[in-house]
Write a structure and sequence with these properties.
One of its GO terms (molecular function) is nitronate monooxygenase activity. The protein is 38% helix and 13% strand. It is an alpha/beta fold. The longest helix is centred in the N-terminal third of the chain and has 17 residues.
Length: 360
């Protein structure tokens, strides 16, 4: 059987390790790519110099294709009154951690949209794959990347978004189900997110567009891979499954919380960053459960407070205030090296496809 993703990139397996900003590392991406799948790094939270160094580091560790992900979020709408009210809401918490609250918030991540400097980094380094999250950049950027030989991917959470991506000339669509960990990629209908599961989203996107579709969300083992591939997916993107790999940058608190996760231990929150994202239901999520969405500053301005609060908590030895993104499959994350995990997933997928029951 031919597979469009494997054929165009000469992959052994149509498995993508998700480009989790702050978690994926050159070591993780290279280990996955060297094992025959597609490793990923994210430069969405990086400066141009950091991005150039990350890509060069990854290229030094592998000659296989890998993916570089960028964030295409709209610029934040700054509202000083709302931002000060947000700071005030957390002042007592900061002081309980022995730190003063910040005096102001910042737009900590630059969007890739109209970012000529970051585009030039990608055109100079020419990674095999570039993927877009939170929407798409301007048409000229997509055309330039494709002319440079980069395969392009973009996340969709609805049929409307899939059609928008297809019309822009992107090569593959990532169908991000509501189960997926981390930030929702919703960009056309953020206020009316229909929260479609991966199983619901895949057939709708197949009907909406002829582009090959990669499924993301709730995919943790080979049986999950076999299920969506049987339904017509071209490949899978898996993030939570790789967080416990030693090559990831997840900190000890995150690893401990993920390794203890039980079914239902994740929630969707906008309070950490200003955009909806699925996280382990940690202390930060519980403390902000009643926060009204309209009171939260825009992404990534709210994230600057979230990161400051996490640092203050960590300095006080308090756990559970950092962003601990994870999908609904969190209880099934495994502590394996990246190469070993790819090997296990491939074997499980092959057995499931052949109808062989897994070993108990």
């Amino acid at each position: 059987m031919t597979n469009p993703l494997c054929d165009v990139l000469n992959l052994k397996y149509p498995i993508i390790q998700a480009p989790m900003a702050g978690v994926s590392t050159p070591e993780l991406a290279a280990a996955v790519s060297n094992s025959g799948a597609l490793g990923s790094i994210s430069v969405g939270s990086a400066t141009t110099q950091q991005a150039r160094e990350m890509i060069a580091h990854t290229q030094a560790l592998t000659t296989a294709p890998f993916n570089v992900n960028v964030f295409c979020h709209p610029p934040a709408r700054r509202n000083p009154t709302k931002e000060q009210a947000w700071i005030n809401q957390f002042s007592e918490m900061f002081h309980s951690f022995g730190n003063p609250a910040p005096t102001g918030l910042a737009e900590i991540y630059a969007t890739f949209c109209h970012n000529t400097a970051m585009l030039q980094v990608l055109l100079d380094t020419r990674p095999a794959v570039v993927s877009f999250h939170f929407g798409l950049p301007e048409p000229e950027a997509i055309q330039a990347l494709k002319a440079a030989g980069c395969l392009t991917l973009a996340s969709a959470t609805s049929p409307n978004e899939a059609q928008y991506i297809a019309a822009a000339g992107v090569d593959f669509i990532i169908a991000q189900g509501f189960e997926a960990g981390g930030h929702r990629g919703t960009f056309l209908d953020v206020a009316t997110d229909t929260q479609l599961s991966t199983a619901e989203l895949l057939p709708l996107l197949q009907e909406a567009t002829s582009l090959p579709i990669i499924c993301a969300g709730g995919i943790m083992n080979g049986a999950d891979i076999a299920r969506v591939m049987k339904q017509g997916a071209t490949g899978v993107q898996m993030g939570t499954a790789f967080i416990l790999c030693p090559e990831s940058a997840a900190n000890a608190d995150w690893r401990e919380a993920l390794s203890k996760a039980t079914p239902g231990d994740t929630c969707m929150t906008s309070a950490i960053s200003g955009r909806p994202a699925r996280s382990l239901n940690n202390a930060f999520c519980q403390a902000t459960r009643t926060v009204l969405p309209e009171d939260i500053p825009d992404y990534p301005v709210a994230y600057s407070l979230g990161k400051a609060l996490a640092a203050a908590a960590q300095s006080a030895g308090i756990k559970g205030f950092s962003a601990q993104w994870a999908g609904t499959g969190a209880p099934y994350a495994r502590q394996e090296s990246a190469a070993r995990l790819v090997e296990i997933l491939a074997r499980e997928w092959q057995r499931a496809t052949a109808g062989i029951e897994p070993h108990l």
